[in-house]
Amino acid sequence: METKPKILIVDDRIANLISLEKVLQDFDVEFVRALSGNDALKATLHNYFALAIIDVQMPDMDGYETVELMRTVERTQYLPVIFVSAIYSDEFYISKGIESGAVDFISKPIKPAILQGKVKVFLDLYRQAEQLRQLLHEKEQTNKDLKEAKEKAEYATYTKSMFLANMSHEIRTPLNGIIGMTEILENSELTKDQKKNLEIIKISGENLLSIINDILDFSKIEAGQIELDVFPFDLEKQLNTVYNLLKFKADDRHIYLKIEIDDNVPRYIRSDSLRINQILINLINNAIKFTERGGVIIKVKLSTKKNAGSIIKFEVQDTGIGIPKEKQGTIFQNFTQADASTTRKYGGTGLGLAISKKLAYMLGGEIGLNSEPGKGSVFWFTVKVEFANADEVEKDVENTGVEVNFSLFKVLLAEDNIINQKVGSMVLKTLGLYCDMVSNGKEALKMQLRNHYDVILMDVHMPEMDGLEATGEIRKYYALHTDKKPPVIVAVTANAFKEDRDRCIAAGMDYYLSKPFKTNDIKQVFKTIASNR
Ligand code: ADP
User: Fold this and answer.
1) Any domain includes 526
2) Is the whole-model pTM more than 0.90?
3) What residues flank ligand 1, with Cβ below 6 Å?
4) How would you list the strands of the sheet with 30-34, edge to edge?
5) In Å, how far are 21, 119, 129, 387 from 116, measured between CA atoms?
6) Among 165, 260, 281, 452, fewest CB within 10 Å belongs to which?
């Protein structure tokens, strides 16, 4: 409910107060009377006034002194004051009045029409100021509500993504055990049938892992937790890696897979090569999956737009089933497939294109398709890049010809999961590496200070003391004991994101391996370590 504006009237004579109220009786206001300056100050403590009409000549504290005191308090600092004085015509009183912050004067005896006119002006101003205050208040409230709603939504997305991240982590740990063990079993003596069955276990495990990775990736992108990792790289080499990775799938389906790179496409560029690979693999996998006859061509072109820097366009062209026009708009949405029956026939989660779309935008580009049912599809995406030169691109360790005698390394494996311990140690064994094992960071620290290993493969999530903390402690020790050779610490974790990698490096780890343990990855890391020794 709107309250009436209040007017403070101050005069040492009650009769004057009554006559003031009478003159102003037509205004819809509430009067608060004060018989002295002191009374007036008291009244301002628990009232908010629109205006004060104050008699100048009062015993004890006169009107000027009263207003001077009011100006020192925030609440009444800007309170409009009309002085009422019998001797206002005196220059001295007027200037003193202005100094003390009066806004207007009126002389006694009061002329009703003049006082009413002045009061009306002040009340109008007051009402306008009130409206403004109200508007500001409402705006503040709306902003607050919006902020709260935004925070709630962000929190919900964050919890969802954390839930998915934790869940997929939990699923991945035993899954890594399964995949790792199949890799080891593959290298043992098996009958033909056993080999075939093992292959099925391996493929199923890898499919499950890629679905979980998709869900994790998607939720992380959605929660804004993915950063690009931009560095110079050899585009041609990357494309060959992708090609080699997928060529056998095309061969399996008896279709061709070709790459055509335009001559003007620079070989060395600066962008996030992993994310480009991820999109390419998604699109090529789809193209192979949905093509029975013919094949798939990957085309790479340079298209430089005005003011847009250099743009590289990747096209994945297939001769497969194609996509009807009405479905083309929706397939980039999460969990959407062109035709529900394709899930049964071809599998998939419907997340690949949604992830690819988000990644393409993150890379400064776009994504799209042209397709005709029965004829095939062309999926394309663009990426904003900078040119780089060969010197900037790190030399590949594999090409340095380092031959490593793995048995020379003293290795400690810190891993709390027994299955992963077993898989890890067996993979190391296939490389001729024997390791000691511990199951938490505390033990890792103790064993390291006792045995001084050359390399520690350190799980990040462990009970009692996690891998990051243990690394910190180990680094502290070696900083004080410079006569001893510090170990190389390799982070081993199921979280394959740059943020996780950055945290490991920041904690003092040197390299990064993502689970599941793969013989080749471990070999690569040890080759790098050997070449840097
Ligand atoms: P999925 O895991 O189901 O493949 P995607 O997001 O990668 O998820 O693809 C969504 C849907 O788009 C697929 O289920 C399929 O219906 C359609 N699609 C994608 N690529 C192709 C293609 N090259 N040819 C025909 N249909 C395709």
Assistant:
1) yes
2) no
3) 282, 286-287, 290, 318, 320-321, 323, 331, 337-339, 342, 348-354, 377
4) 30-34, 6-10, 51-55, 81-85, 104-107
5) 11, 5, 20, 78
6) 260
Closest residue by CA, ligand 1 atom 23? 287
> Is the same domain home to 341 and 254?
yes
Identify the domain containing residue 477 by its residue range. 406-531
What is the domain-level CATH number for residue 20? 3.40.50.2300
Domain presence at residue 434: yes
Residues 391 and 424 in one domain: no
Q: Read off φ and ψ for residue 11, nearest 5 degrees.
A: -160, 140
* In a shared domain, residues 464 and 389: no
SS3 380: strand
Are residues 480 and 410 both part of a single domain? yes
- Is 261 part of a structural domain of the chain? yes
Indicate whether 277 pLDDT > 60: yes
Q: What is the pLDDT of residue 98?
A: 64
Question: How many angstroms is it from 350 CA to the middle of ligand 1?
Answer: 7
Would you say residue 193 lies in a domain?
no
Residue 18 exposed, middle or buried by CB count within 10 Å (0-12, 13-18, 19+): middle
- 452 and 317 within one domain: no
Query: Is residue 518 within 8 Å of residue 183, measured between CB atoms?
Result: yes
Q: Residue 339 sits in a domain of what CATH number?
A: 3.30.565.10
C-alpha 527: how far from its chain's center? 35
What's phi and psi for 54, nearest 5 deg? -125, 130
Query: Are 419 and 427 spatial neighbours (Cβ–Cβ below 8 Å)?
Result: no
**H/E segment holding residue 72:** none
| pLDDT tens, residue by residue, 450-482 | 999 999 999 988 888 999 999 999 999 999 988
Total count of domains within the chain: 3
**Ligand 1, residues 211, 286, 333: which to mutate, most atoms within 8 A of Cβ?**
286
| Strand stretches in 366-485, DSSP E | 367-372, 376-387, 411-414, 435-438, 455-459
pLDDT at 41 > cutoff 80: yes
